[in-house]
Write a structure and sequence with these properties.
Elements: H1 8-22, H2 28-65, H3 70-104, H4 115-118, H5 134-151, H6 155-175, H7 179-193, H8 196-229, H9 233-239, H10 241-250, H11 257-267, H12 271-284, H13 287-303, H14 310-323, H15 333-344, H16 350-362, H17 364-385
Length: 407
């Protein structure tokens, strides 16, 4: 029987601990060696980002358009609205509370310097210029995805699916496995230069803040669903707890689909609506991930004394809901899908991206749990739009179906 491998989160935590500890004892040359490794990996990551965007987004957009009906459009619209509202809720909440949180952590804006200015540099670099920039990749992805969907292309769609599989393998076997080493190198460097503990003390409290926000997000989602379906929101949320707990353990929306599906049907959603909504929302509904990414991105910019404007973050949040579509169903998949817009819209440096990855992975499972639990609220709303009432017997077989057809 093969041994069970250690998950990504434990490996990242171990990398952070080892990096901080090693920074106190290793000589400068060791720090330079890992800075060189990180530089090479960072350049490779920059090279892959446009390809990842195209590989995931083209297929995701094309899939959403296949056989599109009114119910599909409603579901996609609800998922996207939920995702971007989560981002804006985080943006405005952070704007109110971050000054108090950061000051209480002993770090006012700008106290933590930009790592790129203070970290030890590499011995040498290896240039890996991307084939095209992120903006070009996004535009091509939208044009090709919408085009394939509109013409019902078969040959090109097949090629896109194969390109997506290649992209997923790059992420699964070339990027994700090296992330702990990348994180180790960053925290080794920060520890050597004396910044590691400032970073950890600040972001520990930011993580708690985001987890508290996620509770309010779920209450809001099920509150709206309860109003529309005329049902008890707390009872529905309680029914979805097994899906939340499962997602905490798997860190994957896809892996949690069977449990989510079962609990959504127990809420009273009609069976065919649940079978339609849950797998789709597992791919396109990223409210929890949007909250994590927005909050952590703001925290990184804030603590580095960089400008945080509604113009830049408004564009960023609107793009989040699109770029996370069809993110690979592996831990850390969502953050890999949005690295491009972190760099192009918010101007993240490689060091900021490394810090973002480390902190994101630390709370990845909580974001996933928030995503899949919110899928239940969307399913309830779609069920109502389809002309069905929640079945009090939880069987879902006696609902009238005089609403919108799925196809």
């Amino acid at each position: 029987m093969p041994k069970k491998s250690i998950g990504l989160l434990p490996r990242v935590i171990i990398a952070i601990i080892l990096g901080v500890a090693a920074g106190f004892v290793v000589p400068l040359i060791v720090v330079k060696i890992f800075a060189t490794i990180n530089g090479i990996f960072s350049n490779f990551l920059s090279f892959c980002i446009p390809l990842v965007i195209m590989g995931l987004t083209i297929s995701g957009i094309a899939d959403l358009g296949a056989g599109a009906g009114k119910l599909l459009l409603i579901t996609v619209a609800l998922a996207y609205i939920s995702t971007i509202l989560s981002g804006f809720f985080t943006y405005f909440s952070a704007g109110v509370f971050f000054p108090y949180i950061l000051n209480s952590a002993g770090a006012s804006a700008g106290m933590i310097d930009d790592p790129s200015k203070s970290l030890i540099g590499p011995i040498f670099t290896v240039g890996m210029p991307p084939v095209f920039d992120v903006t070009t990749a996004l535009l091509l992805a939208f044009i090709l995805g919408i085009g394939i969907s509109s013409i019902g292309g078969v040959t090109l769609k097949s090629g896109v699916e194969e390109f997506k599989k290649i992209t997923e393998k790059i992420i699964t076997y070339a990027l994700i496995p090296f992330l702990p080493l990348y994180v180790f190198g960053i925290f080794l460097n920060m520890s050597y230069t004396g910044e590691a503990f400032e970073v950890i003390s600040v972001f520990g409290k930011i993580i708690v803040f985001i987890l508290i926000l996620s509770v309010f997000l779920l209450l809001a989602q099920f509150g709206i669903a309860g109003l529309i379906a005329r049902a008890n929101p707390l009872k529905m949320l309680y029914t979805m707890i097994p899906a939340y707990i499962t997602a905490l353990g798997t860190s994957s929306s896809a892996a949690t689909i069977p449990v989510t599906l079962e609990q959504v049907k127990k809420v009273g959603v009609k069976e065919d609506i649940a079978d339609f909504c849950v797998p789709l929302c597992a791919t396109i509904h990223m409210a929890g991930s949007s909250m994590k990414i927005t909050g952590m991105a703001m925290a990184i910019l804030w603590t580095h004394g960089q400008a945080i404007t509604i113009q830049s973050f408004g564009s960023f949040i609107l793009m989040l809901g699109i770029t996370m579509v069809a993110a690979p169903a592996v831990p850390g998949g969502a953050i890999m899908a949005v690295l491009g817009i972190l760099k192009s819209i918010l101007g993240f440096s490689p060091e900021n991206i490394a810090l973002m990855i480390a902190v994101y992975v630390a709370i990845d499972s909580f974001g996933t749990a928030c995503n899949v639990t919110g899928d239940g609220a969307i399913s309830v709303i779609v069920n109502r739009f389809a002309g069905n009432r929640l079945n009090g017997n939880n069987s879902g077989n006696n609902n009238d179906n005089n609403g919108i057809n799925i196809n």
